[in-house]
Each structure stands twice: as structure tokens, then as C-alpha cells.
Automatic annotation (TrEMBL):
Pfam families: IGPS (PF00218). CDD domains: IGPS (cd00331). Residues 4-246 form the Indole-3-glycerol phosphate synthase domain. This is Indole-3-glycerol phosphate synthase. The keyword Hydrolase does not apply. NCBIfam families: PRK00278.2-2, PRK00278.2-4. GO terms for biological process: L-tryptophan biosynthetic process. The keyword Signal does not apply. Pathway: Amino-acid biosynthesis; L-tryptophan biosynthesis; L-tryptophan from chorismate: step 4/5. Keywords: Amino-acid biosynthesis, Aromatic amino acid biosynthesis, Decarboxylase, Lyase, Tryptophan biosynthesis. Its EC number is 4.1.1.48. GO terms for molecular function: indole-3-glycerol-phosphate synthase activity; phosphoribosylanthranilate isomerase activity.
Length: 257
């Protein structure tokens, strides 16, 4: 699946036309997660569909969802922009940025500087970089290019070997451990438990995928996670606010305004 997605990305890049620069206010994802609203920072995901689950929210309204996340006390928002596999759009970022005052991260398969230029133009505050999409040294170049252009990066790994390979080359400010195996698409919080032990203390550590309940939140918190990225359980909730409240077991927060 990953190889197929990367092949599609290469085709998209060959015909990429950069949009006009969006005029928006930018916010730091790193600072938002450091100054989190609850015991663990929440990146709430705007996500219509995925290859493994199909359409998650038939009545998808990205702006309404994002506004609800902010009202519910999310620290940041992640937005799927991949069209073919996740039914996303880069336009969602620009529109959402007009309606919220918390960081917005682009979640896509970024493998080129042209995509980073695009990410800057659409107004994103941060973006995802995935270990395994390009060689590690190329990933480091993309990481550095992003920061040079005012974009923060969450660098995602899916296996202990990937994390070790990453740390041999550089130490990102933010490391995401994805609990989903990209080869089998099976999800287990054991990924966070196992790899959390070797995430450097100076890196902000985010656990991603498979976090569905307040018990799951406590599990990754005990494993050392500073933040969590949650999509499916929030998208399936009666409302974004209810989804967040349920996820945190009623843990109170003064909602953002």
C-alpha cells in the first residue's frame, strides 16, 4: 500500500501547480503540545476516509469538525489532504485556518520540496514526515527545508528499527509513533510502549492511531507520550466536542475561544 501511495505522489508532484499564498496567522504545534490543555496534548484529526476503513464520516464537513475540535479543547488539528486514498484536499487546510486559532498540521505523504512549498502556500503550521517514504538522509533534508520555510514537522515512525535508523541520522523536535503497522494495517498500542522507551527525552513524543478510549489515553500517557493524534473515534462521535470529552473520560478543560 505504501509503495502504491508513493507512486501516486510522484505522479501528482509531476503536475503540481502551486496555489497563491494564503494569508493566515500561524501557530506553533510544538508550543501547543508543550502547553497542553490536559494531561496529554491532543491533535484532533479531520479525516473523511482511509484505505483500511473506507468512508468514516459520510456527512463530512471539515470546517464544522475543526471548529468543534477547537471548542472541545483540542490543542491542534491534523488535516488529511491526500485525495486518492483519504478523500482529502489541500483546500481544507486553507479554509480551516480561517476559522480556528490553534495549529493546523498537514497530514500527507510528503516526499519532495515542491510539496513543502505547497504546504507553506496553503497556510499550514506544520506537516507530517513519514520514515520509510524516502531514505533517511533525504528525509533530514526535507525536515531542514521545512523549518527553513517556517514549517514545523512531526516525524512519524512505525517500527523500532525505523526509529533507531532515524536517530542515527538526526533527532527531530517531535517524533510520532504510529501504532498502525503500514504493511499489515494492524494496530496495537504495544508499539508506543516498546518504542517510547527509546524516544530521546529532548523530543516531544506523540502517539498516533488506535487510541479509542480514555483507557487507551492512560496507556500511552504511562508510556511517556506528551501528545496523541486521534482521528477515527472523534470523527465517529456524535459531535467533536462529545468525542473529545468521552476520549478523556470527562477530564475538564477550559475550551478555547
Amino acid at each position: 500500500m505504501l509503495e502504491q501511495i508513493i507512486a501516486t505522489k510522484k505522479e501528482e508532484i509531476s503536475t503540481l501547480v502551486l496555489p497563491e499564498q494564503a494569508v493566515v496567522t500561524n501557530y506553533s504545534l510544538y508550543k501547543a503540545l508543550k502547553n497542553k490543555n490536559r494531561s496529554v496534548g491532543l491533535i484532533a484529526e479531520v479525516k473523511k476516509a482511509s484505505p483500511s476503513k473506507g468512508v468514516i464520516e459520510p456527512n463530512f464537513d471539515p470546517i464544522k469538525t475543526a471548529i468543534g475540535y477547537e471548542k472541545g479543547g483540542a490543542d491542534a488539528i491534523s488535516v488529511l489532504t491526500d485525495i486518492q486514498y483519504f478523500q482529502g484536499s489541500r483546500d481544507y487546510i486553507t479554509e480551516i485556518k480561517k476559522h480556528v486559532s490553534i495549529p493546523v498540521m498537514r497530514k500527507d505523504f510528503i516526499i519532495s520540496k515542491a510539496q513543502i512549498d505547497e504546504t507553506v502556500r496553503i497556510g499550514a503550521d506544520a506537516m507530517l514526515l513519514i520514515v520509510g517514504t524516502v531514505p533517511i538522509r533525504e528525509l533530514k533534508e526535507l525536515y531542514e527545508y521545512a523549518y527553513q520555510n517556517g514549517l514545523e514537522c512531526l516525524v512519524e515512525v512505525h517500527a523500532k528499527e525505523e526509529l533507531e535508523e532515524l536517530l542515527d541520522v538526526f533527532t527531530p523536535k517531535m517524533i510520532g509513533i504510529n501504532n498502525r503497522n503500514l504493511k499489515t494495517f494492524k494496530t496495537s498500542l504495544e508499539q508506543t510502549k516498546e518504542m517510547g522507551e527509546i524516544v530521546p527525552k529532548e523530543s516531544l513524543f506523540v502517539s498516533e492511531s488506535g487510541i479509542l478510549t480514555s483507557e487507551d489515553v492512560q496507556t500511552v500517557l504511562r508510556a511517556g507520550a506528551n501528545g496523541i493524534l486521534v482521528g477515527e473515534s472523534l470523527m465517529r462521535a456524535a459531535s467533536p466536542e462529545i468525542g473529545i470529552q468521552t476520549l478523556f473520560g470527562g477530564e475538564k478543560v477550559e475550551a478555547n475561544t
